[in-house]
Amino acid sequence: MGAGERSRAPSRPVPAAMLARRGCARGGAGRGGAGRARCLCPSAEAMAAAAGAAAGPGPGTGGGRATTTTNILAQLRHGQLSGRGLTRGAQITEALLKERDKQAKWNGIPLLLQKLYEHSHPNSDFSQCQSILKEISPLLSMEAMVYVTEDRKAAQESSFPNTYTFDLFGGVDLLVEILMRPTLITQKKKQKISDDLIKDCLSILYNTCICTEGVTRRLAERNDFVLFLFTLMTNKKTFLQTATLIEDILGVKKEMIQLDDIPNLASLVSSFDQQQLANFCRILAVTISELDTGSDDKHTLLAKNAQQKKNLGPSRAEINQATLLNIPGFIERLCKLATRKVSETTGTSSFLQELEEWYTWLDNALVLDALMRVANEEAEQSSTESSDESGLANTSTRTQLPQSMKIMHEIMYKLEVLYVLCVLLMGRQRNQVHKMIAEFRLIPGLNNLFDKLIWRKHSASALVLHGHNQNCDCSPDITLKIQFLRLLQSFSDHHENKYLLLNSQELNELSAISHKANIPEVDAVVNTDRSLVCDGKRGLLTRLLQVMKKEPAESSFRFWQARAVESFLRGTTSYADQMFLLKRGLLEHILYCIVDSECKSRDVLQSYFDLLGELMKFNIDAFKRFNKYINTDEKFQIFLNQINSSLVDSNMLVRCITLSLDRFENQSDAKVAEVLSECRLLSYMSQMSMRMSFLFRLINIIHVQTLTQENVSCLNTSLVILMLARRKEKLPFYLRTLQQMEYTEKYPGFILNNFHSLLRFWQQHYLNKDKDSTCLENVCDPLSMAGVNHSSTCLPVPCKNGRLGRERREEVVPPV
């Protein structure tokens, strides 16, 4: 499988904290902008009308007073949009504000903002500002908590007038001015703002962003303010509030910031402790991932080619990745964080402090739900084990709850770190990252955490967070597993370091397989540094195979597990690698899932077919095992039905069978001849009518206008079939047969004309000057095209969607 064709995992994994804060990945756009949970607030105009209606008609004046209130709100909004007239509440007289406050239900917010404005002038010492903010803060934080913790149905019926009023009367702009005022003064002795005042300002800004539409986008448009926020991260007391606000702002920013623009970035990162660095990874996740432009499957290769011609230089995400790699010790610290055991954490004091202020870090509202469920389960378990001693159960719960908190805390940290490492492994500096994470023993460290943390036992109830359902991939436990599997996939794909997933005994087993088969050892196995491989009785790949075979039939992890194992096989075909997995029952497990369980999930089937293709390619022992398992016509028919149900999903396996059959037919070995005569699958594919049927359908289901990374593999598989026919001097016969099939369908020319257009596109897409032609040179030889080396220089593209999207590796195939 080559670059660009398919490694069906989402090209961009969504960080867990981002999912938790913004609601289910299936939700729509929200108040702050793209990426948030479904928008629950009314529009600005609706809020203005509601505020006016809330004032009600005054006694003896009919509707006049309501009209006055509405006019105030309308003039403020108009002034803020146009820059003329009223632009903030401080311009309105105090008497008028007092008169209208009660009936408009402003809760005194405009009057408090007027006082705040008066006490925050350039020469002020801000001494009174904090007391004023202490009065405003509860009004806004209460609405923010309702938005996060209230059931979605109830939240949709509620509104958030306090935060809207705060923004409408200029509160957001005033707090930004207060925070940035020290940077605007040229005097040597600059104003000093207390840490508590900064925290209050940040918390109020964040609460307003959550509940009021458009605030986050307005803040994102102010580059000076965004960069200023990074300077506040140097203070540990304000770090948490600052990081949370920055992440939300960057999440809706139209243009990605450039990390080089952040003042003293290297010294800022080096000043972070490990917990701060883990939280900072949540921000980095937004800056090193390509901006989300929608599902990859909906973007045709034609559109992608046009976009690439416009953007000739590296993207900002790629530039930011390079910037991070230039920070001394950055990757080493991430590896230490990713492999740190729970017992090595600094304790629960900082986490408990965060929980005290969870209204400013709203992820913790969701984390708290998960923690309480863990605690309740422990309490129930203790109560069951010692039902006659209720006091003991209570004591057990009190002593176990902090450990549960520590575990969940560590999981949340590792999610962000694994995500950043995964994106860097898929970037332009992939080899540099590979070298560093191997040196810092990331893989052995993850292997040591596999049973106790990554794939630890848990109950299903602990997987669903507040406001989500059982189908969400947003819970920390689930997302950690997915990020872990994505990391293994990126780490193993077309790289010799994949053998670090094994331990020394397993590497020796690979060597023994090669010696027994009388074939040379793979150079990468011989050259692997044994001091960097996994420790213990089992390597990480073997552990993954064990949990893969135990996974329930309906589990969504099956997709990710198959992708991770497939990446280990991808690249130069290795008989030893295949036999290592065959000896552990992988082929039988895959066939059981496809045939006996009759899997219905398209994504899972696709990943199983691709894995099966890599596992069986050119391996006569694999085909023999296949025939032993598929030992009845009924089973074989079920298998064929699964293949034919969607050729987009199964064509990689069809390609594997076609290439393998061609090689076996040219061998004179008695064992090969025996398998050729007995194997149902090879006998089926050896029929000319079957190959022509596959070829006809493969060409018919794709068109130039609909080619995507999802289905371009169908074009390449059809090219392989025709190329092999040409080698046997049967190409004219194949083309005439296609022509006859056109006439049978009573639509002359529709197949061959379509195929001609596809070939022209293929040439333009792969042979233009801005493509890397190295992979073309590697596969122009028909023997290379037979699967010996598939475009090892081409890499996966970081993904842009959060669910089961697919990165395709477009395998480069020479035209017929």
UniProtKB/TrEMBL annotation:
Pfam families xrefs: DUF3689
An example Gene Ontology molecular-function term: phosphatase binding
Matches recorded under InterPro entries: ARM-type_fold, TRPC4AP
Protein name: Transient receptor potential cation channel subfamily C member 4 associated protein
Signal peptide from the UniProt entry: none
Gene Ontology BP, a term: ubiquitin-dependent protein catabolic process
Region entry Disordered, spans: 378-398
Species this protein is from: Taeniopygia guttata (Zebra finch)
Gene Ontology CC, one term: Cul4A-RING E3 ubiquitin ligase complex
Superkingdom field: Eukaryota
